[in-house]
Amino acid sequence: MRVIGGCARGRVLKTRKGNETRPTADRVKESLFNILASLLPGSCFLDVFAGNGGIGIEALSRGASKCVFIEKNSHCVRIINDNLRLTGLEDRGKIIHREVDISLLELSNRKEKFEIIFLDPPYHSPDLGLALGRIASGSLLAKNGILVVEHHRQDKDWYTQDWQISREKKYGDTMLSFLVAAVSPENGDDSNDNSNISWKL
């Protein structure tokens, strides 16, 4: 597995052996970052269920100002640390080694905001819906930000009314769903109106 773009392009990343983690395929990653290209420079990026950190490191390589990685597995945390050092990006990366729900609550309590949030849990994991609920309630997504979920194409159990699907891309059994915060119908609040976001096609 390699970094495919930016200042660390070509660097080989460490991965965890076995089937417990599922690194994003290169063709999916390339498509993802082509879509996000205009939003990346200077952005704050949140990589949830980070695995070996490949997505967050790709974001840093392509110009994100910082990335927070959330990962509960100790072995994966060591791999993320190694990969940040291998790519020379450790000064812009921070790892939270805790359960996802606790980590998101911590970020919310610190009033953190992210222009791009990426979630790639194990397929059909109930933790995805819980994480999305926590992100919505904690207002972690910046105004006009984008949230991306990598999931199995047949899995939509995680989808809630907190989010509006703006775009979907399918690659075999893998789906990328691009979400924006839904506008509240109760008060007609349009402060989070994402209808003019430049990345929408």
Which features characterize this protein?
single chain, 201 residues, alpha/beta, Rossmann fold, globular
How would you explain this protein's 3D organization?
By secondary structure, the protein is of the alpha/beta class. The protein has one domain: 3-Layer(aba) Sandwich (Rossmann fold), CATH 3.40.50. Helix content is 27%, strand content 24%. The chain has 5 helices and 7 strands; from the N terminus they run H-E-H-E-H-E-H-E-H-E-E-E. The protein has helices spanning 26-36, 54-61, 74-87, 100-109, 127-137, and strands at 44-48, 66-70, 93-96, 114-119, 141-152, 163-171, 174-181. A 7-stranded mixed β-sheet has the order 3-2-1-4-5-7-6, with helices on both faces. The chain is globular and about 40 Å long. The relative contact order is 0.15.
